[in-house]
Design brief:
52 strands; 767 residues; mainly beta
């Protein structure tokens, strides 16, 4: 019995290695003979410049073979050999290409062994094929006739593959003798695609068709343009234009199907290319539907009063361009109302429903400037400029998270992050940034000063920040993730119109802690000094022993590296490891704090080791003896401060999310004495929750791969005091069991393993 082993080696060395391994790994039957057939070129594809030249291609073979040219139109390629035997070199000459890119194939055939190989020669051209419609949508008169669509094209129309698709039963509506439907006789004249159309016999219904233009270039790459035609009815009516309020009145919570020929006119205020349109849904523990952002657009009325979220049927149907003025036929779509807050989605929109689209600029949009406090439900899905805002956490990027849980790290366990923003009136809200936003962590430092913030107003849940609906700890799956009535989505970097310098801000800092200043630790009480402001100190109330570096706590991991991030050359962000841009912590003397710290982003995930002291943590949170929580205590002075707004910002996380008994429910209180044992001295400010850090083995929707930032208004009675104390402590001893957000019976551990952390704290006032 004879065995044949056929393969195409890249190098002769590879062939010899495989040959020897095969002999050592296999035993043949007695008397069997192994015939190894070597045949193949050194490379499969060669890309050539447009200049004339020559090429030597190494061929490996142990037999005779023939050489033939295919697709050599114009005979621009010549081979010196037509037959070769054994290993050899194939000599190729090629001409100058004064036209479009082209390709030829060299076919090698070993007829005796029935083996073949193909070499592709791709030559660049002096000319680049141009093939682009000026507008993808056009309307057609009901009485038919000629349609002219501007088409920038330098290829021959004979080289286009043209087909027409009709929506639903519209092809059947064509005249009986027109087998191809009502679109016919497509030609190209003087820069225009010229199309002949038949009259629409229906006196009520409009009809649509899609003209598909496909050009396959010389390298066999398919380029496609689509022209969407909408024809008026026999009365030459395209339907009835309705207002945004009319469409809102159609919607209900189950979704109302539109059956009439009605259309709306509005401005597109979203930019699909930003990657930050729409709420990409976490479909399973480790998968995200990224097509949401590709299928979503936001459109507002011409006066800017109302907006709709548009959901197209497929990503390809989302042909909307930012700032363009569009008319959309709504017949066949569904209008859905979502309540509390009131907002509307139009779903099932296809590209063929866009009756017209006129390109515009930002100046075309109605000016809509507001303070946060003035927002209403009518502003949802419209483009709004929020006045006098700031990003109070002065460190990190738009998404300071563990990228090992995102698309940058090849994982899909976190779809977005919420950045804290506050304004001059003491109001605050969050900025949403999708992980599909490519500029979210590009190394740019966030602005320190104040100014305006523009974007589209939305209401979306974010369970990784908040998973509680009621004060009793019960979970309402419909409301879990409520982090405020309104959020804002930026469409580009230019939407951030805030000053870079903190000096140009409406707020001043009384005290700020952006990292632990280890040089200023007082070992007697384990406290450390503020990194901005005079006299402020931060400590923990657990007093039994010091834990790390003289603190009653430890340095903790942080994720505020500015970027770029990513650990895959083929991923959306590339492969970026190491510390290039630091953490965005610029000190008052201009020092870029810890910019060159080595244990940073070593695997492209944006992480920083606890040794940088960018965050601090403590594992002791329940004082069993006094039946109360231990606490973070911040001490500062408000003497000589006069203001109409005093506030506190903190950024928190429960470390090691798989551990049981971390404190979930917290409260903030103030005192003028700081006496931990005199409860009458402490006055309630607010309650808040702290999320668990993510865990790979079981990533819950309530776990966050970064820190949660919170803004709290403080009472003005704290002004003018020599000493003010803020106490941040567990409100009760309820805790998670490590597998869910909260569980009846689970309590905070007293064994020193209930680690909770913080990476920012500040007290601000309006200057």
């Amino acid at each position: 019995m004879k065995q044949f082993i056929k393969y195409r080696p890249i190098q002769l060395v590879t062939f010899l290695g495989v040959f020897m391994l095969s002999l050592s790994a296999c035993e043949l039957d007695n008397g069997d003979e192994a015939n190894f057939e070597e045949f193949g070129a050194d490379g499969k594809t060669y890309t050539l410049s447009s200049d004339a030249g020559d090429l030597a291609i190494k061929v490996y073979s142990n037999q005779n073979y023939n050489i033939a040219l295919e697709d050599n139109n114009g005979e621009w390629v010549a081979v010196a050999e037509r037959n070769l035997s054994g290993d050899g070199t194939l000599h190729v000459e090629y001409d100058f290409n004064d036209g479009f890119p082209r390709m030829a194939k060299i076919c090698l055939t070993a007829t005796s062994a029935n083996l073949s190989d193909t070499i592709y020669l791709k030559q660049k051209g002096v000319k680049t094929p141009t093939f682009k419609l000026a507008k993808p949508n056009m309307t057609v008169h009901g009485y038919g006739g000629e349609v002219r669509a501007e088409l920038d094209m330098n290829v021959d129309i004979k080289d286009l593959h043209i087909s027409v698709d009709y929506t639903s039963d519209e092809a059947a509506m064509a005249a009986p003798d027109k087998e191809d439907g009502w679109v016919r006789d497509i030609t190209y004249e003087n820069g225009f695609l010229v199309i002949q159309t038949d009259p629409n016999p229906d006196e009520r219904a409009v009809r649509t068709a899609t003209v598909n233009l496909v050009y396959i270039d010389g390298w066999e790459v398919e380029n496609k343009q689509q022209l969407f035609l909408m024809q008026a009815n026999a009365k030459d009516e395209l339907g009835v234009e309705v207002s945004f309020i009319d469409v809102r009145n159609l919607g209900d919570t189950d979704g109302m199907k539109v059956t009439d020929d009605i259309y709306i006119t509005g401005y597109v205020v979203s930019d699909r290319n930003s990657g930050n349109v729409g709420d990409n849904i976490q479909t399973t523990q480790n998968s995200i539907d990224y097509t949401i952002a590709q299928k979503t657009a936001y459109i507002e009325s011409l006066d800017g009063r109302y907006g709709f979220c548009i959901e197209t049927t497929t990503p390809d149907d989302n042909t909307f361009s930012r700032y363009s003025k569009v008319q959309i036929l709504l017949k066949g779509t569904k209008v859905t109302l979502q309540e509390d807050p009131e907002r509307y989605t139009i779903s099932g929109v296809t590209a063929s429903m866009v009756m017209s689209s006129t390109e515009g600029t930002a100046s075309d949009l109605p000016v809509k400037e507001k303070y946060m406090r003035d927002l209403t439900d009518e502003d949802i899905y419209t483009y709004v400029t929020l006045k006098d805002c700031e990003l109070p956490v002065r460190k990190g990027s738009l998404t300071p998270i563990n990228e090992g849980y995102t698309n940058a790290g090849g994982a899909h366990r976190c779809a977005k992050y919420a950045t804290l923003m506050r304004d001059i009136n003491g109001n605050s809200m969050y900025i949403y940034t999708n992980t599909t936003c490519l500029y979210r962590r590009d190394g740019t430092r966030l602005p320190y000063g104040s100014g305006n913030m523009s974007g589209v107003i939305v209401h979306e849940l974010f369970t990784r920040f908040e998973y509680l609906e009621a004060a009793n700890g019960l979970i309402d799956e419909e409301k879990a993730g409520d982090i405020g009535r309104y959020q804002i989505r930026h469409m580009s970097r230019s939407d951030f119109k805030m000053a870079d310098d903190f000096k140009n801000s409406f707020s001043g800092l009384i005290t700020e802690f952006r990292y632990i200043n280890t040089n200023g630790i007082i070992k007697e009480d384990g406290s450390f000094p503020s990194t901005y402001g005079d006299g402020g100190r931060f400590r923990h109330t657990y007093t039994k022993h010091q834990i790390g570096n003289g603190l009653r706590g430890n340095g903790s991991g942080d994720y505020t590296y500015l970027g770029p991030v990513g650990n895959s050359a083929t991923g959306p962000f590339g492969d970026n490891r190491g510390n290039v841009n630091g953490f965005g912590i610029i000190l008052e003397d201009g020092t870029d704090y810890q910019k060159n710290y080595q244990d940073t982003n070593t695997d492209g995930k944006g992480n920083t080791g606890g040794g940088a002291w960018l965050a601090w943590s403590n594992p002791y949170w329940w004082d069993e003896e006094n039946n109360r929580g231990y606490a973070w205590i911040v001490n500062f002075s408000t003497k000589n401060i006069a203001t109409n707004h005093l506030s506190m910002q903190l950024s928190v996380s429960n470390n090691a999310g798989n551990q049981v008994s971390k404190p979930r429910f917290w409260k903030a209180e103030w005192s003028l004495t700081g006496d931990m044992d005199n409860e009458a001295d402490w006055h309630y400010i607010t309650s808040y929750t702290v999320p668990d850090m993510v865990v790979w083995a079981n990533t819950l929707l309530s776990q966050c791969p970064g820190y949660k930032a919170i803004d709290v208004e403080l009472p003005l009675t704290l002004l003018g005091k020599d000493n003010v104390y803020i106490r941040l402590m567990p409100e009760n001893n309820k805790a998670s069991n490590g597998a869910s957000w909260i569980d009846k019976g689970a309590t905070i551990s007293v064994k020193g393993d209930a680690t909770s952390a913080m990476n920012y704290f500040a007290i601000r006032y309006n200057k």
